[in-house]
Amino acid sequence: xxxxxxxxxxxxxxxGEVDYEKLIRxxxxxxxxxxxxxxxxxxxxxxxxxLRRKVFFSHRDxxxxxxxxxxxxxxxxxxxxxxxxxxxxxxxxxxxFTQWLQEKFGAELYxxxxxxxxxxxxxxxxxxxxxxxxxxxALDIIACGxxxxxxxxxxxxxxxxxxxxxxxxVAKHITFSTVKAVFGFENSxxxxxxFFPAIQAVPCFLPSVLKGRNIPCLIPAAIDQDPxxxxxxxxxxxxxxxxxxxxxxxxxIPGLGKGGKMSAxxxxxxxxxxxxxxxxxxxxxxxxxxxxxxxxxxREKGGTPDICPVYHYYxxxxxxxxxxxEVYRRCKSGDLLCGEDKLRLSEVVKNFLKEHQRxxxxxxxxxxxxxxxx
Amino acid sequence: xxxxxxxxxxxxxxxGEVDYEKLIRxxxxxxxxxxxxxxxxxxxxxxxxxLRRKVFFSHRDxxxxxxxxxxxxxxxxxxxxxxxxxxxxxxxxxxxFTQWLQEKFGAELYxxxxxxxxxxxxxxxxxxxxxxxxxxxALDIIACGxxxxxxxxxxxxxxxxxxxxxxxxVAKHITFSTVKAVFGFENSxxxxxxFFPAIQAVPCFLPSVLKGRNIPCLIPAAIDQDPxxxxxxxxxxxxxxxxxxxxxxxxxIPGLGKGGKMSAxxxxxxxxxxxxxxxxxxxxxxxxxxxxxxxxxxREKGGTPDICPVYHYYxxxxxxxxxxxEVYRRCKSGDLLCGEDKLRLSEVVKNFLKEHQRxxxxxxxxxxxxxxxx
Lengths: 374, 374
Prior knowledge:
homodimer, Rossmann fold
């Protein structure tokens, strides 16, 4: 697997490495260097495949987080989920990584379920729908292996007493102009959405408020979320006397269709954690690929794994680098045809789903232990 | 006391009757007619002086509230207070009237303390300040004689779990354009204030949500609040399946200075419920009046009680119409000089304060019984 190709994760960003570097420059974030990975490895022992494969590729203040950690000041993790439907495999990728960070650093995790925002944003969803999905999605989170002693999942709606009291302190420092600029809101935006960025910023400071001391925060999230943290939470943290939250940014996991990330709004392009083996298999077999128009052309010119969702699934679900490299090489050379490739992925995904669904069922017994409520 | 003069309550609105009628036309509200007062009296027996003296002078759907009541459907009362400081006598006036409505109609009262809004709006106030004033002000509310079984006082901050869950349903239907138009918000307005109109609308529907059935709501409040209810709560009520809240509107109680309502931001013009007898006395003796420049001129031309705060205090604190009329007549004729007038008011107010402060102290024992929390 050539180094350059490893930067290409989304099929619609063919330029790969170049574009992501441009993103880093535009957002003003910092690429994760090999030195920084080595420094992480001193604490973690091994390096998670998603970091090794540069799915997590950019950061803000991750070095500062390590400074603090090495000086004896532990950080907590904050990530979130908008519960507008069932969890799909794309959602799980950063959760796998977050679970690894929790395990290696013994970090507490605050997991925000933004059922308020999904209700406010989506005309077709009731509050009952989104709160319901909070609990469905929480099962998938728990199935990722988070520590029940150190993981606090909360519904914005059900934890709103605590959240609102902190959110008004955030909101006092954020004008409508700011959220227009940062989130693209307009005068036609409803006032619930206008306020929501304050609710979203709260978990950056929540453990500090709950424990009465300033605690560093690390947010693992996709790179497109960066402007939100920069424009709101990082901007107002000093005004409230808190540390600015640090971030570690991932690329996207592509959907099975052409040209878009996996999306719950196009169910045929996303494999849901509640899908049956047959449904998952059918979706994979119907997937867009980086293959050629004919078998003969593929044998001659080889496939283009860099734009192929099937290949990218291997980068997420195969733990062994050599196996991933083998798929890449065989595809590129024309040795591996899409049919064989998809059949194998189907087996990998079905095995994953079987195990995940078992853990998801187990999670129902311990769900309450994870939930934070007023 | 001539009928026309009774419409003049605020010293800075000298045209009195004409202006208030203009307000009714501009806002599209309805004046309270003698017929409507007679209809109320069928249920209440007597008529409260503030209604008789037309301090409460306008309404929306009060006739509909009586239709419902007569058909066996009881209404609840909703009013509020922005706890940005201590209670002054001007605040108490609508509370006296609300207490009377509660007693006569056996109505439940939901009393919203907008400590979130006062914090968000005022750069100089902390959340601790405004929540603190919620409890200080609640003592004054209780001292007005509300029924502990039927009165629910709540801090927006401390009842925010329940409020937020309903507020998002309201907020989903209100755009930033709307709150710009109704409240005069701008892009520089903070997003907490932008959201607050949703929180303020919630109590209109709260008992209906809590009890699972549609219950009519009557809001006693100053006339300047009308656009808020019209633009938000009344506009979205049908979308959420609730009755539109009805309203009964009052004029203002003037401050002791010239040209403004009693304001906590000008402490020398307002008598606070926690003022000592001496402080109250000094404020009254230093009050602006409708008197002439010299005693001789006053004896010759008479005073102008219509623009005199001292006179207006009598209309609120003297129960006997004859006594109020006597003050008006003697002032107008030049028989009553301002010094005597103020000395008498000082006695009336000091007596009131003594009794109120006793009840306020008693209220501390029962405060918890009145407070609604998550």
